[in-house]
Hints:
It is a single chain. This protein has one domain. Helix 1 packs antiparallel against helix 2, helix 2 (16-32) packs parallel to helix 6 (84-106) and helix 2 runs antiparallel to helix 7. The chain is 53% helix and 0% strand. It is built from eight helices and no strands. The protein is mainly alpha-helical. The protein starts with a helix and ends in a 55-residue tail after the last helix.
Amino acid sequence: MAVVVGGCGAAFPPAAIVLLPVCFVLLAAAAAFTLDEPASLVVDVTPTGPVRRTQIRAVALLAPLAAGALVLLAAALRGQALPWAAAGLALAGNVLLGFAVACVLRTRTGEPGAAAGAAVVLVLMAPSLVPQVARWVRTFPAPGASGPSSESRVVDRPRRVRGGHRCFGRRPKSAPVDVQCSVIPATTA
């Protein structure tokens, strides 16, 4: 399903801004299912340690990573303008997030895929669904963006604000000022 959505994003460049992030979210959910195993009750008691079993299962992460790499390659061949390094990092981050959530839930249940996949999808889709979150968090790089913009910064430093003055951004003047920070003309007596 993720490859179909990503392929549509690669084939139709105007829709890529929506379809490629959805593809990466689906790949993250797929990565959450790598720890599911119907025979987990039997496998958990074998002499292999839990760390070794997790390492063996982590090889299955190559499938969602390869699928995402193919989608990115198809988008590149279609000539889409994306920050490719950032898109590859977003792909790897989403897939590893899905796997990490599944590893945490694996300590509580034998098959964490459904719960982990749902949690990862909700977390990664939150910026798309809640505008207040989108101001601070991006799970996919914006096309054509080469660096951080003023919209993507979490904290913007204040500009020329000085404490204790009524008129922010201006030096205090010797002449009195009114509420709009304009100088009151001096009256001659």
